[in-house]
Each structure stands twice: as structure tokens, then as C-alpha cells.
Design goal:
With 332 residues, this protein is of the alpha/beta class. The chain has two domains: 2-126, translation initiation factor eif-2b, domain 1 (Four Helix Bundle (Hemerythrin (Met), subunit A), Up-down Bundle); 133-331, Rossmann fold. The chain has helices at 42-50, 57-73, 78-86, 93-107, 112-134, 162-170, 187-198, 211-218, 241-251, 282-285; strands at residues 2-5, 15-18, 21-25, 35-39, 142-147, 175-180, 202-206, 221-224, 228-230, 235-238, 255-258, 264-265, 286-287, 290-291, 304-307, 314-317, 320-322. It has a seven-stranded mixed β-sheet, sandwiched between helices. Strands 1-4-3-2 form a four-stranded antiparallel β-sheet. The chain has a four-stranded mixed β-sheet with strand order 12-9-10-15, covered by helices on one side. β13 (286-287) and β14 form a beta hairpin. Bound molecules: 5-S-methyl-1-O-phosphono-5-thio-D-ribulose. 5-S-methyl-1-O-phosphono-5-thio-D-ribulose (MRU) is lined by residues 55-58, 92, 148, 150, 154-155, 160, 187, 225-227, 237-238, 303.
Length: 332
């Protein structure tokens, strides 16, 4: 593994291929250090996905596509490599979608680097379309709430939930973003706030438990990303999303989910069938490596929760803003 540190963000994608290696921003170090790491084998990339060097469903998908590219270049058994890469994390559907897509391309004799680069670029293009479709939902002066990080870091570039916000901001609208911190790994506070600050988009970090308080004071809409969307529109996203959706419905705040086709799993009928990752007690009981809980007390740490489709106002996709009963259109 090679490491390189620089001071400029967003000139780099979250993950890319260069000099025969897969490169990525080490997202575990942000916002304090912008460091790049690279890997020469698919098993190392799978490990980086598991350790959350790279995270966010579409970025995990792109990293997996590049892992499969390395497997092909290194003459590995493609079926075995696919199984290993898919085992890195269980919830984000993009991981499975990307690996299957690459297995198809490699099997068809395509150049592995061109195929993986094409996959990553397709994610960016889809996010740009999500921004174009979602931007008009944000009026001048709007207050938007988001959760976790569904920005450029999570999607190679641009973002899903952050794409409409970026689009509205660049169209000259005044936008304010409530960024919920996202315990236990703090992706909202550390990654989303970092991205928004760089672009001069007005925002404030709130603790996760303050969401209802601010929604009652006047949030115009909530936009979150997704890790897997089932055929009936139920979806998994970062733990804490379900609570926001219920609060939004109670308080009459529109609740949107932004995601590309690679996150829609039409083979999973409903949210109850989605596997929810458990990342272990220490993420909860330790903070920055230090214990923050009484020793020996158990902690429970589901990384995601499932929100039923009835709480979703619309899915912002590359095909437009769709009601839960219209989502099959993204697969067409
Ligand atoms: O555990 P993470 O950081 O990979 O979880 C990320 C999320 O839950 C995101 O909201 C989701 O992947 C959508 S990213 C566009």
C-alpha cells in the first residue's frame, strides 16, 4: 500500500485507477487529513471496503468494479474474486451490482480498465442527472436536512443526496443544510460538513437527536441517500434514517431518497429481506480510539435501518423524481 498526502480535495475522485493500481481517498482520516492510498490486488481492495477506507454505496460499487479489474489483470479466478469482493459488506446493493456487471464485461472480453472506468463514470453521470432532477425541489432560501454522507465521497464524485443541493447552490439559490452527525462513525459531521464547507454551502452540524426539533422549527425537505432499495420501495440507509422519515411524515416535511439504478435491488421484495450490517460494539463504546462507555457494558450497532416506502415522498433518480410505486422505471 502506498500513501500520499495533499492539501486539495475534489480535484480527486473518491476512487480511481492509475498506474495499474486502485487509488482512493482514505475517508477514515477526514476531515483532518486528506490522504490517498493505493492497492494492487482485489483482496486488498475488498479489505479497504470492509475497513471503510472507501464507503458510501456507489463508491463501494466503483471500488468493487476496480477490484474486479485488478483480479482480471492479475489473472485471478474471476468467480472466486467476485465472491471475495462481494463478502466485504452486506448491505450496499451497489457492491453486488458492480461485481456482477464487471463479471459480465470481463466474460465478454472487454478491457478491464476501460470497463471499470466506464462503470465509475456512469455513476458520476447518473449523479449529475440526479442533481438536475432534484435541484428544482430546492427553492431559494430552502432549509434542507440530510443524514450520513451521500456526497462526492460516497459516489466517486458529485453525490446523490448532495447533488440536488449542489445544483441549487450553483444555480444561485440560497440553501442551508442541517447535517446530522451520524453516530457512531460521524459521516455527517466529518464528511458531509467537510464537502459542503469546501463549496461554501451554508450548513450546520446537529446531533442526530436534534432532527425532530429542527424539523418542527422549519425544515423544507429532507434528502438522504440509500444503500439498497427493495422492489416495493422500502429502503436501507444509515442508522437513524428511519427516525427522520417518521418525524418528517408527522411534521409534514417532504422526505426524498436520492439514488442511482445501481442501488435498486428488484430481486429483494421488501425491506425486511435486506441484510443489515452489524459493525460491532467498539464503534459505539470507543471514540477516536478512547473508551467512552463503562467497561463491560454491551452495545448494539446496526449500521443501517430500513424505512418503509410509505414514508418516502419521492425517489430522486437519474430517470426523474419517482413515487415508490413508479421505481421500476429506473430499470427500464
Ligand atoms: O456505512 P457507510 O458510510 O458506507 O454508509 C453510507 C450511507 O448510509 C449512505 O447514506 C448511502 O451509502 C448512500 S451514499 C450515496
Amino acid at each position: 500500500m502506498r500513501t500520499e498526502t495533499e492539501g486539495v480535495a475534489r480535484e480527486r475522485r473518491a476512487v480511481w485507477f492509475e498506474d495499474g493500481r486502485v487509488w482512493m481517498i482514505d475517508q477514515r482520516l477526514l476531515p483532518f487529513e486528506l490522504a490517498f492510498v493505493s492497492f494492487g490486488g482485489h483482496a486488498e481492495v475488498a479489505e479497504a471496503i470492509r475497513d471503510m477506507v472507501v464507503r458510501g454505496a456507489p463508491s463501494i460499487g466503483a471500488a468493487a468494479a476496480y477490484a474486479m479489474c485488478l483480479a482480471a489483470l492479475n489473472g485471478e479466478d474471476i468467480r472466486k474474486a467476485a465472491g471475495l469482493v462481494k463478502s466485504a459488506r452486506p448491505t450496499a446493493y451497489d457492491l453486488f451490482y458492480a461485481v456482477d456487471w464487471m463479471v459480465g464485461r470481463i466474460g465478454a472480453g472487454d478491457d478491464p480498465v476501460a470497463a471499470a472506468d466506464g462503470y465509475a463514470q456512469s455513476i458520476i453521470d447518473r449523479c449529475l442527472a440526479i442533481g438536475r432532477h432534484g435541484g428544482p425541489l430546492i427553492k431559494d432560501g430552502a432549509k434542507v436536512m440530510t443524514h450520513c454522507n451521500a456526497g462526492a465521497l460516497a459516489t466517486v464524485d458529485v453525490g446523490t443526496a448532495l447533488a440536488p443541493i449542489r445544483q441549487a447552490h450553483s444555480a444561485g439559490k440560497r440553501v442551508f443544510v442541517y447535517v446530522s452527525e451520524t453516530r457512531p462513525r460521524l459521516q455527517g459531521m466529518q464528511l458531509t460538513a467537510w464537502e459542503l464547507k469546501q463549496e461554501g454551502i451554508d450548513c450546520a452540524i446537529i446531533v442526530d437527536g436534534a432532527s425532530g426539533h429542527y424539523m418542527r422549527e422549519g425544515v423544507d425537505l429532507v434528502i438522504v441517500g440509500a444503500d439498497r432499495i427493495a422492489a416495493n420501495g422500502d429502503f436501507a440507509n444509515k442508522i437513524g434514517t428511519f427516525e427522520k422519515a417518521v418525524l418528517a411524515k408527522e411534521l409534514g416535511v417532504p422526505f426524498y431518497v436520492a439514488a442511482p439504478v445501481s442501488t435498486f435491488d428488484f430481486d429483494t421484495g421488501e425491506g425486511g429481506d435486506i441484510t443489515i450490517e452489524d459493525r460491532g460494539e467498539e464503534e459505539v463504546t470507543r471514540l477516536g480510539g478512547r473508551p467512552v462507555a463503562p467497561e463491560g457494558v454491551r452495545a448494539l450497532n446496526p449500521s443501517f435501518d430500513v424505512t418503509p416506502a410509505r414514508y418516502v415522498t419521492g425517489f430522486i433518480t437519474e430517470r426523474g423524481v419517482l413515487r415508490p410505486d413508479e421505481i421500476r422505471k429506473v430499470a427500464e
